[in-house]
Amino acid sequence: MANRVLSIQSHVVAGYVGNKSATFPLQVLGFEVDAINSVQFSNHTGYGFWKGQVLNEHELDELTEGLERNELLNYSHLLTGYVGNPLFLSRIVGIVPKLRKVNPSLVFVCDPVMGDNGQMYVPKELMPIYRDQILPLADIITPNQFEAELLTGTKMNNKEEAWDAVRLLHAKGPKTVILSSTELGSEDYLLALASYSDGTKSTRISVEIPKLPAIFTGTGDLFAALILAWMTKSNSDLKGSVEKTISTLQAVLKRTIAHAEEQSGGKPPSKAHLELRLIQSKSDIEQPTISVTADPN
After folding, report:
1. Domain limits, the chain
2. Catalytic one of 111, 221, 284, 295
3. What angle do CA 180, 35, 279 make, to 5 degrees?
4. From CA 153, how far away is CA 39, in angstroms rounded?
5. pLDDT tens digits, residue range 201-219?
6. Superfamily of domain 4-237 in the CATH hierarchy
7. Which of 27, 41, 110, 149 lies at a CB distance of 3.0 to 4.6 Å from 52, suitable for a disulfide?
8. How many Cα atoms sit within 13 Å of 147 on the Cβ side?
9. pLDDT band, residue 1 (cuts 50/70/90)
10. CA distances from 231 to 10, 136, 153, 224, 237 (A)
11. 221: annotated active-site residue
12. What is the pLDDT of residue 199?
């Protein structure tokens, strides 16, 4: 089956988060992308003011029915990101079997977007749905440290506790677990942990991610999309896929910072200045220069 992704996550008119952050990189890397927008906002919520619409579970049903009636549910991948409605997330649970009926080899990549830095920004009712219903269906998950702690009911104070949490996440279903970022590195580095385990063989790697002097939005969405692409193109080479994904992110973020500093004229950059420079990073997305090394654990 051709690489064809159904991506269910947020959409913004201006800027790059959710489907706006994921679609272009996937298309550049040769994937067809069909997007369902869980929300449509004028801009991301970090601006402090936004307007827009939220897709409800009945509207999701209508879109899915239209695709099904026209025999368009033939996807190689399902990618999910921000969902703010528990009933909407529960409907996604029901979509996965429909997609796997058409393509039993469907790969489900789930970014369980719930919060960061100790704070949830979705209703707390979403967490048990992710934990008990979504994770058993997912092949690859990409939570950050806070989301992994929520899903496992544990705290990560060191690397060993993080690997314990990864084992708990594997036990819930996903064969590939990637903690996209943790604060378990150092003053200068975040730490990403990635693991593959199918019950008979396993691989574990960690990557130090250089910290950059800015706060970005949409990086998790870009991370999940790139992992989907490189795991597919590399025949599930975890080390190479993580290195290419993080190297691409570093290139995009450095270009974004340079642009923000140029546009802000010496003043602190605005939210608009720090929107990801995705289009300008097309060559880095297609052929990333490897700038980080994944170490075996």
Report:
1. 4-237
2. 221
3. 65
4. 28
5. 899 999 999 999 999 999 9
6. Ribokinase (3.40.1190.20)
7. 41
8. 25
9. low
10. 23, 20, 28, 11, 6
11. yes
12. 82
